[in-house]
Amino acid sequence: MKSTSVSKKIITILLLLAVIGYFAVQGYNYFVSPETTTLVYRYHSEQSIALRGYVVRDEQVVDCNETLIELKHAEGERVGQGDTIASVYRSADALNATQQLETLRAQKEQLEYAKSASSDAATALRLDTDIREQIISVRAAYESGAYSSLDTLIPQLKTTVLKREYAYNGSDDLTAKLDELNAQITALSGAASGGTTRITAPVSGTYSAVADGYESVLTPEALETMTPSQLSSAAPQSVSTTVGKLIQGSAWYFAANVNEEDAASLKENSRLTLRMASGVGFDLPVTLTRISAAENGKCLIVLKSTRYLSYMTLLREQNAELIISAYDGLRVPKNALRVDENGVSGVYCLVGRVAYFKPVSIVYQGSDYCLVEPGTIEAATESQKSLYTLRPNDEVIVSAGELYNGKVVD
User: Are 364 and 45 in contact (CB under 8 A)?
Assistant: First the structure.
């Protein structure tokens, strides 16, 4: 019994010594030779300011107190002065007659095209190409969220498909069908034209079907003298029945209040990038045109752009991000940077088990990392130059004991 008890004590002591020895080795490796590494990779960093503001345009609302209205233009479409914006119908019968008339005219166009193309194989084959291209356009519009353009693209696709069908399956009675359609069109034309009036564009511009009441409150002229408190208190006016509005020119603006400290880092006439939180899926180039005087710690900034107006017609109050500067480079931890005996900045990388010093130039410093690019390397051969050039996926030494060029790391 005593022998068994002594054996247990010896085993317990040996296990305790093994645990102590393990932690002692780990502590030695950490404090005496704390070698840790990480991989280098390409990285994009930005300095930005979060904004909440308003999209402003030079807009003219087109009033209309009628109820039976048919809009003639898609959202974001250019309209010339005097062009028809909408048709107003005096009765439901007039609206139905006009819709039927448009359907019959489309069928007439298809039949006339089929009649001319029925004996032309090249024309029929060309329709196949048109159908493929239009399907691609419909799919692209759907995936990009440009749903307003589908109202035009889908009917075009439908018309082309019917033309193809008529062209391939040509019939001897096309002339008779055309005569029948012409008779129906003549009968409906009187009813349709007698019960409709046109609403025309008072000015040329980009059409938008939505009026929200800010059109006369937030204007480019008002932004020239507006204060931060005036922007914060901006409220829409009541809107009567309209057929939409026309946006004059190609410019749009974004006005927002920012902290006085953030405004101090900005300069008027600087070119920046605006990134909308919703509504537009790509970055927008803008120019900072105004920074107002400070008011209660806030400044009003005005950004202007003359691009992508057709994407901005439905946007008003928006969250956004103003990109002040952007940097690209190889990301390395800050504590991996070292300076050699010649005063050259660089990092040590493991190649196999050997540490090599690779010079770098610093592009940008973040909170705990740096973006760098390979520095100038003077080497006798291309292989040596390649060895000392920092690249993505290099294994950079973050922490270690004494390091020098060519050290073998165990």
Answer: yes
